[in-house]
């Protein structure tokens, strides 16, 4: 028998019959007639105690898968063996218990298999619990359907999203929650995938608990059983509504930008990070007469005048390598073969998609040629103006000598000749005045040309008091003759960054005018004061108590060339015109206020605030 069999006799439980299978379990040391207690290693203590209780109680006992180590040598580790143990009391006739019958069936293989199955079951439950926790914590709706399209499982997120109660029939309610425009397509695609035993991936709109339809991405893969037969499909629903709307907005934005670019009558293009052009607007094709394929990835360079292509290409490569903006003026061929001037600009944009280039080619041929014409005219005008200045300066210089000659002849005539005329004195006075006026006019013309040439004098930091004292020193004789009092106050703004020659000319004209137009009825008092505006800009005020003048409107007539307020006083009327020109050329402006019989105030704002 494959089972171990042994008889245990008497209350001492002595071994009687022991077959070979049982002998292998108990070990070779066990012999007939030995008591069980004499070999404690053969029978475990707990089993020995049970044997005695079975003997005393006269009741059979069966132990399933009892671990009973086989006897080994001293060097070997005992290997657990599992046996089904049966203890059966033995009677002699109708007498009391005389012993026990011991059966031991080796079930080690079955027990190990059972234990492995048990451990696998525990691990499966653990993994299933983990998977359920994962599926119920992720934001997606997870589900399982069988081959008949019946739902085996759906995560709680489905109920949260749809607002349906847990008692709802998924198979009946799910199709009704799909948008009517998507329902037929979804049902067909899912049925086709199940019939083919493959997965699916598609988008559709699913009604949310608030009644709003939201775009969802449905993906599922089949669970294959032998022989490659799909039994279940496991999948997930992911809400992609915001991403889809953003993608739609981006597509609309790109379409609008493309429409705008195609509507602009200008060559617009984009290029990759490597500098290869991947987009031309519609006008580029119209202008060049070429298709996008004919233009190619370097189209705008091929359209340039041949002698400019190499230089333009080198600069473009440098911009690609450094990321610096590209800009240049080149001649570009039109569809009729004519080359026209263009400004080509390109800038690099870097975002999450990487660097890209955006460029334009702007036709400036008309402006370029107009600028050439204007530059030519400007050069001619500048040359004419220089010639005119030279002529006026030369003429005024050359006419001084004849005037001096006339004055000398007239003085000699007056000394050596006499006229028998009662108006002799008046006529002589008129001639003197005419000669003096002609001399002053020639001097003013020369000064006008000289000041015009000095408008571009270099600027420097000037001490206002020093320059004013220098000008007053040159006018000392006039100051003394007019018995004038001059007050200088430059505390608020003691310095001025200006051209020295320009500043001297301005102060000279203002001071000399004040002396020239002093009121004979009272001594002249001249006040010169500097200050700063609220914006920190310097201002100069020159105030006198002279005769004053009438200012009927703007611009003030005093600033017009050859304009004179007091004709009875000698002058050419160009001094204040020069002052106004100098101040305006430096970015400032001149204001005047005056009252006849009281005086005049000139206010110079050196720079526009």
Automatic annotation (TrEMBL):
Q: Which residues form the Histidine kinase domain?
A: 394-609
Q: Which EC class, in a word?
A: transferase
Q: Where is the PAS domain?
A: 253-295
Signal sequence range = none
**GO molecular-function terms, A-Z:** phosphorelay sensor kinase activity
InterPro entries reported for this sequence: HATPase_C_sf (IPR036890), HATPase_dom (IPR003594), His_kinase_dom (IPR005467), HisK_dim/P_dom (IPR003661), HisK_dim/P_sf (IPR036097), PAC (IPR001610), PAS (IPR000014), PAS-assoc_C (IPR000700)
List the top taxonomic levels of the source: Bacteria, Pseudomonadati, Bacteroidota, Cytophagia, Cytophagales
- Provide the species name: Hymenobacter properus
Q: Where is the PAC domain?
A: 200-252, 326-376
Q: Write out the catalysed reaction.
A: ATP + protein L-histidine = ADP + protein N-phospho-L-histidine
Q: This protein is called what?
A: histidine kinase
Q: Name one Pfam family in it.
A: HATPase_c
Q: Which SUPFAM superfamilies match?
A: ATPase domain of HSP90 chaperone/DNA topoisomerase II/histidine kinase, Homodimeric domain of signal transducing histidine kinase, PYP-like sensor domain (PAS domain)
């Amino acid at each position: 028998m494959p089972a171990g069999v042994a008889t245990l006799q008497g209350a001492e439980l002595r071994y009687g019959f022991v077959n070979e299978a049982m002998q292998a379990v108990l070990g070779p040391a066990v012999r007939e007639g030995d008591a069980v207690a004499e070999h404690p290693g053969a029978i475990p203590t707990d089993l020995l105690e049970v044997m005695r209780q079975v003997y005393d109680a006269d009741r059979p006992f069966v132990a399933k898968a009892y671990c009973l180590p086989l006897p080994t040598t001293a060097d070997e580790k005992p290997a657990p063996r599992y046996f089904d143990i049966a203890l059966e009391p033995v009677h002699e006739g109708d007498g009391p218990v005389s012993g026990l019958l011991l059966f031991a069936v080796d079930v080690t293989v079955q027990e190990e298999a059972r234990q492995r199955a048990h451990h696998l079951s525990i691990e499966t439950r653990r993994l299933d619990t983990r998977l359920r926790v994962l599926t119920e914590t992720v934001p997606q709706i997870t589900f399982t359907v069988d081959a008949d399209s019946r739902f085996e499982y759906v995560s709680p997120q489905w109920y949260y999203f749809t607002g349906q109660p847990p008692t709802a029939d998924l198979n009946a309610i799910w199709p009704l929650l799909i948008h009517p425009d998507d329902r037929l397509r979804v049902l067909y695609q899912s049925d086709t995938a199940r019939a083919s035993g493959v997965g699916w991936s598609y988008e559709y709109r699913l009604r949310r608990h608030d009644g709003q339809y939201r775009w969802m991405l449905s993906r599922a893969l089949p669970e294959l059983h032998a022989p490659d037969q799909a039994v279940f499909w496991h999948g997930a629903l992911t809400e992609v509504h915001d991403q889809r709307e953003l993608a739609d907005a981006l597509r609309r934005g790109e379409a609008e930008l493309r429409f705008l670019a195609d509507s602009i009558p200008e060559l617009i293009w984009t290029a990759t990070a490597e500098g290869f052009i991947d987009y031309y607007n519609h006008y580029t094709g119209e202008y060049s007469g070429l298709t996008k394929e004919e233009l190619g990835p370097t189209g705008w360079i091929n359209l340039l005048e041949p002698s400019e292509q190499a230089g333009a290409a080198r600069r473009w490569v440098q911009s690609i390598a450094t990321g610096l903006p590209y800009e240049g003026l080149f001649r570009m061929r039109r569809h009729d073969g004519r080359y026209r001037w263009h400004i080509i600009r390109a800038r690099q944009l870097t975002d999450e998609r990487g660097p890209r280039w955006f460029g334009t080619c702007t036709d400036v041929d008309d402006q370029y040629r107009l600028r050439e014409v204007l530059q030519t005219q400007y050069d001619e005008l500048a040359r004419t103006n220089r010639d005119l200045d030279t002529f006026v300066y030369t003429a005024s210089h050359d006419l001084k000598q004849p005037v001096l000659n006339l004055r000398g002849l007239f003085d000699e005539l007056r000394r050596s000749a006499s006229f028998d005329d009662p108006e002799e004195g008046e006529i002589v006075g008129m001639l003197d005045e005419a000669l003096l006026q002609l001399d002053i006019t020639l001097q003013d013309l020369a000064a006008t040309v000289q000041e015009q040439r000095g408008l571009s004098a270099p600027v420097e930091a000037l001490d206002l008091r020093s320059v004013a004292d220098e000008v007053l020193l040159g006018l000392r004789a006039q100051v003394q003759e007019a018995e004038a009092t001059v007050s200088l106050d430059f505390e608020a703004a003691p310095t001025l960054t200006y051209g020295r020659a320009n500043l001297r000319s301005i102060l000279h004209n203002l001071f000399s005018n004040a002396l020239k137009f002093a009121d004979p009825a009272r001594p002249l008092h001249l006040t010169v004061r500097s200050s700063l505006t609220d914006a920190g800009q310097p201002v100069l005020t020159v105030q006198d108590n002279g005769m004053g003048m009438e200012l009927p409107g703007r611009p003030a007539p005093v600033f017009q060339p050859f304009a004179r307020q007091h004709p009875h006083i000698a002058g050419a009327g160009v001094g204040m015109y020069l002052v106004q020109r100098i101040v305006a050329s430096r970015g400032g402006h001149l204001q005047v206020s005056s009252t006849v019989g009281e005086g005049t105030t000139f206010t110079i704002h050196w720079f526009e605030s």
